[in-house]
Amino acid sequence: MTDLSKAEPPNDRAADLPAADARREAPPPGDVIVKANALSKHFGRGSTVVKAVDDVSFEIRAGEITTVVGESGSGKSTLARLILRLMPPTSGTLELNGKDVTGIKGRALNTYWREVQAVFQDPFSAFNQFFTVRRLLGRSKGMLDLKGESLQDRMMSAIEQVGLKKDSLDKYPHQMSGGQRQRVMIARALMMRPVLLIADEATSMLDASLRANILNVLTDLRNDTGLTILFITHDIGQACYVSDRILVMKHGKLVEHGTTEDVIFRPQHEYTQQLLEDVPRLHG
């Protein structure tokens, strides 16, 4: 991650953004994991067509946290679902590790879902209230390639990676906080050992005091395991804190992209500048 604490903000509002943790240094440039080429998703017909994602092209590199930021309705969650292959694109192509995955089906799609996992915004409805964490994580056994590793060891590894204790495995949802539940959701995704983790508004339903904890879990995963992460948020402050690169979307279009330092401190598009102006002032 870019050390934003050393950069000169263009105005006093940029100074109100969260400072990047000095221990989180940017990784060396990695290989391209995901490549989107003129990706579009349109809904409706004729004059009622809604261009949720419109001719978007970008790359996600290995070992980095790339954040898609924009207001509600900008198309960022639709973009995440396109990358997850939960819906087909209207046009364009999507590549994973250099392979076209735009139209894959059947077993190939199941394999893709092991490699690309997601964590969504609601850690409360994602649980079956009658399942312990152990049972929740264990339900993925049929899709795992354990390679001699026991299911118990895989569970313990996933739980430890998100900063939970061993006894969390035997807890029920009502015994855990919202932040702990979100960590379990991340652990469930990590059970697959994915090459890409998509975190779609993963902090939006948490108390403000817990959001930084989840952001730290994501950055620690990037630092400790080299996991590639696509983070979706409407909060450019969170994007500043957690990202190596930022993609800014408005009305389905990708209006600006670049390193975190460039987008935050040298924004080129007026919409990016507006998002920065909307950051609450904490001084003066």
Q: Give the proportion of residues in helices.
A: 25-40%
Number of strands: 10
Order of helices and strands: EEEHEEHEHHHEHEHEEHH
Computed structural class: alpha/beta
Q: Which fold name fills CATH's third level, the topology?
A: Rossmann fold
Mean pLDDT: 83
At the fourth level of CATH, the homologous superfamily is P-loop containing nucleotide triphosphate hydrolases
Our Rg estimate from Cα atoms comes to 19 Å
Strands, helices and their partners?
Blueprint: E1 32-43, E2 50-61, E3 65-69, H1 76-83, E4 91-96, E5 99-100, H2 106-115, E6 116-119, H3 133-138, H4 151-161, H5 178-190, E7 196-200, H6 208-225, E8 228-233, H7 236-242, E9 245-250, E10 253-259, H8 260-265, H9 270-277
Parallel strand pairs: 3-8, 3-9, 6-7, 7-8
Antiparallel strand pairs: 1-2, 1-4, 4-5, 9-10
Helix pairs in contact: 4-5, 5-6
Task: Outline the structure in words.
The chain has 284 residues and is α/β, with parallel strands linked by helices. The protein has a single domain (4-122, 195-277), classed as P-loop containing nucleotide triphosphate hydrolases (Rossmann fold, 3-Layer(aba) Sandwich), CATH 3.40.50.300. Helix content is 31%, strand content 23%. It has nine helices and ten strands. It has helices at 76-83, 106-115, 133-138, 151-161, 178-190, 208-225, 236-242, 260-265, 270-277; strands at residues 32-43, 50-61, 65-69, 91-96, 99-100, 116-119, 196-200, 228-233, 245-250, 253-259. Strands 6-7-8-3-9-10 form a six-stranded mixed beta sheet, with helices on both faces. A four-stranded antiparallel beta sheet has the order 2-1-4-5, covered by helices on one side. α4 (151-161) crosses α5 (178-190) and α5 (178-190) packs parallel to α6 (208-225). It is globular and about 50 Å long. The chain starts with 31 loop residues before the first strand and ends in a 7-residue tail after the last helix.
